[in-house]
Write a structure and sequence with these properties.
Elements: E1 11-14, H1 24-36, E2 43-47, H2 50-60, E3 65-70, H3 76-92, E4 101-106, H4 109-113, H5 115-118, E5 128-129, H6 131-138, H7 150-163, H8 179-192, H9 204-212
Parallel strand pairs: 1-2, 2-3, 3-4, 4-5
């Protein structure tokens, strides 16, 4: 089934963690080719951090790309540099400068603690937590109620509200959750102030749509 037919509000194409270092150029070319075939709406590209991400932008950003999710976001200054690169890509494709949005992925303790500044960086429309990497850094093991990440999640919600941007997207779920547990987790994140949730498993999309409808 095509990504656009799964019922999700947006499709995210991953050029970061899902692609090994030796396959980056091939993946960029494949994404660029996919974008030119048919009419695409609300497509986001998950790009690498820093210089690798700048190469991603110049290769794939163009008509049909709503925004970029920046994996491994470290600071607001990093996003300011990215904004310049995005403007160059927009001009190259005759797009209005500023039309491509940015959604930083906060997947480190430093990024979470800097969420208030990152949320005010150029082009940022919403934040997202990268909890898999964050859990590893913090040596966190999630319990049934997921309270171990309550502080990090709440900080991201607070930073978004303070900056006046959209509420953050809820993070991917840990692997192996049953449908019932995934629904309970998603409902908890909604109560915390998240809106929408990232999914890898297409079976999760209907649950997310139902919880946030």
């Amino acid at each position: 089934m095509a990504a656009e037919q799964m019922g999700a509000d947006a499709v995210v194409i991953d050029l970061a963690d899902a692609v090994p270092e030796t396959g980056k150029d091939e993946a960029r070319a494949a994404v660029g080719d996919w974008l030119t075939k048919g009419s695409r709406t609300n497509v986001w590209i998950r790009i690498n951090a820093a210089e690798l991400g700048h190469r991603d932008v110049h290769t794939v950003v163009g008509p049909g790309v709503t925004g970029v999710c920046v994996a491994g976001t470290a600071s607001a200054s990093q996003l300011a540099a990215l904004a310049t690169v995005l403007a160059e890509a927009e001009e190259a494709h005759q797009l209005p400068v500023g039309s491509v949005a940015v959604a930083p992925v906060l997947d480190s303790a430093a990024a979470v603690l800097g969420a208030a500044e990152i949320a005010r960086a150029p082009r940022v429309t919403r934040l997202q937590l990268g909890e898999a990497a964050l859990r590893i850094q913090l040596n966190v093991e999630l319990g049934a109620d997921e309270r171990e990440l309550l502080l990090a999640r709440s900080l991201v919600v607070l930073a978004s509200a303070a900056a006046g941007i959209e509420p953050p997207v809820a993070p991917l779920s840990p692997p192996g959750l049953s449908a019932a547990d995934f629904r309970a987790s998603t409902e908890g994140l909604r109560r915390l102030g998240f809106r929408g949730r990232a999914c890898i498993d297409p079976d999760q999309v209907a649950i997310v749509n139902d919880v946030f409808a």
